[in-house]
Amino acid sequence: MQNDAQTDTQAGAEAGARTPAAYSSFVAVGDSFTEGMSDLLPDGSYRGWADLLAARLAAASRTATGGGDGTATGTAQQTEPGDGPGFRYANLAVRGKLIRQISEDQVDVAAAMGADLITLVGGLNDVLRPKCDVEEVCAVLESCVERLAPACGQLVLMRSPARRGPVAARFLPRMEQLFAFLDDLAARHGALVVDLYGAEVLGDQRMWADDRLHLTADGHRRVAEAVWQTLGHPAESDWTVGLPPAVRPGWTARRTADLRFTRRHLVPWIGRRLTGRSSGDGRPAKRPDLLPWAAGPSYDD
Questions:
Q1: What's the N-to-C CA distance of the chain in angstroms?
Q2: Residue 266's pLDDT band (boundaries 50, 70, 90)?
């Protein structure tokens, strides 16, 4: 029994010391969450968790291949075009897309790229609509996974975060039905699942932008860290740690915020629904080609 215990301990230590896979290419598939809204950069573009993750993976790839002694901080030592094959990244996400649109417009393109790593996040725009056939959403999601999983080294799925509040509460049963199916789907196809929905901090209203639909910059940083850890990399921070106790704003401040939200975000959203339009209509993919990573603008520029 002692020898068995020693063997188990040794095996566990070896597993913990195992080097995470070094990915040389990454394709992100999805909607506004993956596009990076509302992690706004000074130039008016959006960064988001996928860009942050790409920066880390690029730095880790260079270190693994002897291209430098950098650490995967996501802020330095990114591979530049012309610097060898380097780390390549594509982001096909477009805001407002439903799961069927993601399936038709992005999935086959992503599968054809033959990337080491693909992330797929979709379906939340569907379940947040007044009318939604969750079974149909699950069926389309399954079709996406069936095409993507064999086409990459590792597929990553996510249980999307949800802003806590009375409005979101009515959609939680749909979300949980979708996520239960997603867990089963991942198990059948060897995909990894990042559980953002189960992280209490990502439900905190302070983690959400003024539109109440998209994460703040801090939220996106935490998502990037969550995916990073799910891929087997050592933690750089505790992405689940809670925020300091909230100070409830006064009645006037709350009503002012509600009016601003209604005017800037809710009314335009209702208008698009009534006219059958989407915020992503006519928009190209964020980063449509699988090209060498180069650092973009940052908050420090």
A1: 60
A2: low
